[in-house]
Specification:
With 179 residues, the chain is an alpha/beta fold. Helix content is 31%, strand content 17%. It has six helices and eight strands, in the order βββαααβαββββαα. Strands 5-6-7-4-8 form a five-stranded mixed beta sheet, covered by helices on one side. A hairpin with a 6-residue loop joins β2 and β3 (19-22). α2 (48-54) crosses α4. The chain is globular. The model is unreliable at 2-6 (pLDDT under 50).
């Protein structure tokens, strides 16, 4: 799982060969926080994008281990939202730097450009979505989502935020502990 170094968390690739990312102290606090919702802000260069890309790490690790144990693809799904589609570019670029190293068995083959989706070797999915239209959030009604991230959440209405938060759930008892 996450490896605690002297000051911050270090995330190894799923193959355990190398550390692919080390959290800054503020990122470390946010990632270890047991709260259901974590607000992470700050100035440019404060690590918000990398923290948001690595936010689903515990679920990724859990699904990877379950996949190794059972041989069955897993169902977890994290979605990172942004108000406008074009504003997702930085987050997607950072995920392209980190996720293939995180899951070497997947590599770049897990990326689907049209869907803006990573499908990890375990079956776990990380999506990047926008909420441009007034009813874009409704397409997630009834969908099983195991985690949410929002970049610039202040651009999202409370109604949309609450609607999406209500979709977070899992049938997997182990995953429920990570929600």
């Amino acid at each position: 799982g996450l490896i605690a170094s002297a000051e911050t968390l270090a995330v190894p690739g799923l193959d355990g060969r190398e550390i692919i990312w080390e959290a800054q102290p503020r990122q470390d606090v946010a990632l270890r926080c047991p709260a259901l919702e974590v607000c992470y802000g700050g100035t440019k260069g404060g690590g918000k994008t990398a923290m948001l890309v690595m936010a689903p790490w515990e679920q990724i690790l859990y699904c990877h281990q379950r996949y190794l144990d059972t041989g069955r693809k897993q169902r977890g799904r994290w979605i990172t939202f942004r108000k406008e589609l074009g504003e997702l570019d930085d987050i997607i670029e950072r995920s392209m730097e980190m996720y293939p190293a995180l899951d070497p068995a997947m590599g770049m083959n897990g990326w689907t450009k049209m869907e803006k989706r990573w499908r990890l070797s375990s079956g776990y999915i990380v999506d990047f979505r926008h909420l441009d239209g007034p009813d874009d959030h409704r397409r997630y009604n009834g969908k099983e989502i195991s985690g949410l991230g929002f970049d610039q959440v202040e651009e999202i209405s409370d109604e949309v935020y609450m609607f999406l938060a209500m979709q977070v759930r899992s049938k997997d008892d182990g995953m429920k502990k990570l929600l």
